[in-house]
Amino acid sequence: MAISNLDVLIQQVKTLSPTERLRLIEYVAVTLQSDLVDEEDWHSKLQATYGILADEPVERLPQPPLEERDMLE
User: What pLDDT digit, counting tens, does each position of 3-32 carry?
Assistant: First the structure.
């Protein structure tokens, strides 16, 4: 039985560190998610994009104090 490219890839993945395997999984998930979304279906594309960012909260950093300026007359 011939060894497939997938079998070779699996053997290579086994040599990666846990951190590298996690990065690989994240990469595959993101690319697969965008491959499965129909380009014409913008609603699904939006949902897929939201799903990628759902675990990262959007936060606004504190604003610096306003600069004092001369009043307009």
Answer: 899 899 999 999 999 999 999 998 888 888
What's the Cα-to-Cα distance from 4 to each of 1, 9, 10, 15, 63, rounded to whole Å?
A: 9, 9, 10, 18, 56
For position 22, what pLDDT does the model report?
92
pTM above the 0.90 mark? no
Neighbours of 8 (CB within 10 A): 10
Helices and strands counted in the chain (H then E): 3, 0
The helix or strand, by DSSP H or E, that contains position 9, with its residue range, turns out to be: helix 5-14
